[in-house]
Design a protein that fits this description.
The protein is of the alpha/beta class. The chain is built from 10 helices and 5 strands; from the N terminus they run βαβαβαβαβαααααα.
């Protein structure tokens, strides 16, 4: 069985150990290299040829913006373990090679994400990609579109509620509907969809 080659980038020892242990249980995934510095990524990509680069640390926005250029020749997909409200440069989101999941997701979501993106060309599923390519959008209501824009800008549920003059519970209800319509499972996926749909 051919293993998915993963390069792990994190400056947090416990995160590195935990991710390495988790991925070791997946027989079809192999961590072929690790680094604590984003500046090492280009050389490691050239030497190790990873299919997926897993970013498990907080990298400044400017360094993230330059990340795509450094990895472009090797075609590796980039998976970012994001925190709530993280700002990921539009350049990366629009590239189709960057995928985000929240660090609070269940452990198996990370493994599933790596499997899904390995060799893929988009962070959205095929149905969503086809809709965007054809200029179509899921039937979000006006209020759901507004909530989506606010979520994509990094606002919390409380901040969205304050902006719209509604309760957090109402925001959660809107998010539930948005997730269902977009086929999303995380806020970051909603933000990525919003960027690609030119809502923000």
């Amino acid at each position: 069985m051919k293993s998915i080659r993963v390069l792990l980038v994190t400056d947090q020892p416990l995160v590195r150990i935990g991710i390495r242990a988790l991925l070791a249980e997946a027989l079809d995934i192999a961590v072929v290299g690790e680094t604590t510095k984003s500046s090492d990524i280009s050389a490691l990509c050239q030497r190790l040829r990873p299919e997926v680069i897993l970013i498990g640390c907080d990298i400044p926005a400017l360094q993230l913006s330059n990340l795509l250029d450094r990895t472009q020749p090797w075609g590796a997909q980039v998976v970012i373990l994001a925190t709530t409200g993280v700002t990921v440069p539009y350049k990366l989101l629009l590239s189709g090679r960057t995928h985000c999941i929240l660090h609070t997701e269940a452990l198996d979501v990370l493994v599933q994400t790596i499997r899904r993106v390995a060799g893929s060309a988009t962070g959205l599923d095929q149905t969503q990609s086809d809709q965007l390519a054809q200029g179509e959008r899921p039937s979000l209501t006006k209020r759901e579109l507004t909530v989506t824009r606010l979520i994509a800008s990094g606002k919390t549920n409380q901040q969205v509620g304050n902006t719209l003059g509604i309760t957090e519970k109402a925001v959660e209800k809107h998010l539930h509907q948005i997730f269902a319509k977009l086929g999303a499972s995380t806020r970051v996926e909603v933000a990525v969809w919003a960027v690609r749909a030119r809502l923000v």
